[in-house]
Design a protein that fits this description.
The chain has 321 residues and is α/β, with parallel strands linked by helices. The protein is built from twelve helices and nine strands. It has two domains: 171 residues, Rossmann fold, CATH 3.40.50.1400; 136 residues, Rossmann fold, CATH 3.40.50.1400. The protein starts with a strand and ends with a helix.
């Protein structure tokens, strides 16, 4: 049993703050190439995965080192966040070990009665963050204790997060010769989702555009020096949000652009969509069109992200006490 997200502490003894912990939620990724069939089976909800898709994904992971670094990075981030906030910080994955359901059960066994839950994706969509929330709710329904939740739905305007990305973009810009820096275009990217979310009033695209505008302002980029684009659209039978980066690269080359920074803003850590889709796939395409592409480092477990998450935790902890 649980009191539900953002329903406060009404079942708690007066002035007795519940034992609180943080739960960082991330997508998950295989620990080895041998894990990929089971990992894809989980993503596909138990539907059999065609062998050609298993082979394709396996080859992509092989090219980035044979495993996903996401869990290791998120655990390192959790350790730093715990040191900053003084709270226990747990890590739960949506599609791989440690699964959200197992981590929540452990949290309850450890005596946690209030959870501050934060997804490692700053922008809300019912198809992404909404699913994490559903999995957390289901995990809490399975326990026999009264647990309250403060679920952070989105945090794409968090100042420390914006400052961290902007700082990395500035550092990336100096990789280009000084005489061409004023011509470098910045493409802010995020994972595409099916277009039908817009018909449902989903805030995903609007939140991403707001983050991109705030970053452009921090970087003093004129409107002709930056764009927003989607990446990593799945091959399904429905249209996905665009434009895709792969659509923009030939267009920019045809206009005479030669230098690009591709800056993911919908992700915070290294994983397949960064290490393969950008660093290998988009780089290969850019070279074909005579473009130089640089990518800023991801925030990963760096100080700006620790600070951003600590601020979110502090805000929710004040509400819960």
């Amino acid at each position: 049993m649980h009191t539900g997200a953002n329903r406060g502490t009404r079942n708690r003894k007066a002035r007795q703050p519940a034992p609180t912990a943080v739960l960082l939620l991330a997508y998950g990724g295989p620990d080895s190439l041998d894990d990929i069939p089971a990992y894809l089976l989980d993503i596909r909800g138990g539907r059999e995965t065609p062998q050609h898709l298993i082979d394709e994904v396996t080859e992509r992971y092989r090219q980035i080192g044979g495993r996903s670094p996401l869990l290791e990075i998120t655990r390192s981030l959790a350790g730093k966040l715990s040191g900053r906030t003084g709270l226990p910080v747990y890590v739960g994955m949506r599609h791989w070990h440690p699964y959200i359901r197992d981590v929540v059960a452990q949290m309850v066994a450890d005596g946690v009665r209030h959870i501050v839950a934060i997804c490692m994706a700053p922008h809300y969509s019912a198809l992404s963050i909404g699913v994490y929330q559903e999995k957390l709710e289901a995990a809490l329904e399975a326990v026999e204790e009264d647990v309250s939740v403060s679920f952070v739905r989105s945090w794409g305007t968090q100042p420390e997060y914006l400052d961290g990305i902007a700082g990395h973009i500035r550092e990336t810009l100096v990789r280009f010769p000084e005489e061409v820096r004023h011509t470098v275009k910045v493409i802010f990217t995020a994972h595409s989702l099916p277009e039908f979310i817009l018909e449902r009033g989903d805030p995903y695209e609007a939140q991403l555009h707001e983050t991109a505008r705030l970053l452009a302002a921090r970087l003093n980029l004129p409107s002709d020096r930056w764009l927003f684009s989607y990446q990593s659209a799945a091959r399904t039978g429905v249209p996905w949000l665009g434009p895709q980066v792969e659509d923009l690269i030939p267009e920019l080359a045809a206009r005479g652009d030669r230098n690009l920074i591709i800056a993911p803003i919908g992700f915070v850590a290294d994983h397949l969509e960064v290490l393969y889709d950008i660093d290998i796939g988009m780089q290969e395409m850019a070279r074909k069109y005579g473009l130089r592409v640089e990518r800023p480092p991801m925030l990963n477990d760096s100080e700006p992200l620790v600070a951003a998450l600590a601020s979110l935790v502090d805000e929710r902890r004040r509400v819960a006490t």
